[in-house]
Amino acid sequence: MILFRVLFLVFVTVALAATTVEPVVAQNILDSRLDTPIGTPENPLDVGIGIRIDQITSVDQKAENYGAVVVLRVEWTDPALAFDRQELGRDIRVFNPPALADHAAEIGTVVPAFVIHNQQSNKWIHESAASLRYDGRVLYVEKSSLTLQAPHFDFRKYPFDTQEFHFEVVSIFPSQYVSYHPINEFSGLGDLLGEEEWILDNARLETSQVTGLSGQDSDQVALIFEGHRHLTYYVIRVFLPMLVLISVGWALFFLDEYRKRIEIAGGNLLVFVAFNWAISADLPKLGYLTFLDFVLQCMFLMTGALIVFNVALRRLKVSGRESGARKLDNYAVKWIYPLGYAAIVGYAVFAYLLVP
């Protein structure tokens, strides 16, 4: 009888111990997922990056940069940050970003810090917040304004050029510790960018690896979009006046007085100089000619040649060879001047716009 009572007490004790341990295991069920901590070469932290540009505040071609108002979204899941929602009384905790970083530092886990790779100015953060879900899922959102480098500008086809704009987010940690993937559904360009000079489209996210701050390969997510110019402005302000000047130069051949021709052609030459200065003011000091530079320089040379040609005709007339001068004049009116400009424009289109 005593033996039976001893066995019964042992059984009850074991049963009570089992029922006591069971809830503890249930409350810490995420602990089993921490056997291999994230942010390690064996289990890198997977981070989603979304980039949306709401405004383009400026495009500075000479400095090769642009200003933007950007909404950045960063998402990741870290079980080390999980909490008991029943104990807290809600599913989500909201942090100021520095407070979240402090909280993660206390736990000893990884916060996926990043830099804007092509940032040129201070980043003015308008609003930022971070939310932490009970299972360790973190969402960080910030809206900021900054100036970004645009080193991919190429003006060879100006003003028919298409330029690439980049917004590059690079992880501070090497790729073996933190990896990036794009959040395409959140990213892109806003509907009201506020940019009148450029037509911006074809936005896309691209992932790559670059040399990070650590000197090792780090993941990068870049929002890339393209811009081309409103050509109506250049047609009205540049090409139409150029066509008028070319027509005036051709009309000079119908004047019999060579001295008047020289005076008008000299005025045209000054206009081309002013054109060249006005256009070059919008672009950096390039080491190559653009499409518009080539056309303008050829027009400048043609106008200079026109002055020299009329001076030669004047000399022929004064020396008594007026019939020869008129033949040369007639030949220039019908063939040299129009075909010369056609050849210039045709070569410019082929060399600058058609050839990659």
| Termini gap | 101 Å
Q: How much of the residues is beta strand, in percent?
A: 25-35%
Helix content: 40-55%
> What are the low-pLDDT stretches, counting only 5+ consecutive residues below 50?
1-36
CATH superfamily of the largest domain: Neurotransmitter-gated ion-channel ligand-binding domain
Overall shape: it is rod-shaped
How is the biggest beta sheet arranged?
7 strands, mixed
* CATH fold-level label of the largest domain: Acetylcholine Binding Protein, Chain: A
* Averaged pLDDT: 84
Q: Helix-strand pattern, N to C? A: HEEHEHEEEEEEEEHHHH
Radius of gyration: 36 Å
Q: What is the tally of helical segments?
A: 7
The overall strand count is 11
Oligomerization category of the chains in this entry: single chain
Indicate the CATH class of the largest domain: Mainly Beta
Transmembrane segments: 234-255, 262-279, 291-313, 334-355
Main location: membrane
InterPro entries: Neur_chan_lig-bd, Neur_chan_lig-bd_sf, Neur_channel, Neuro-gated_channel_TM_sf, Neuro_actylchol_rec
GO molecular function: extracellular ligand-gated monoatomic ion channel activity; transmembrane signaling receptor activity
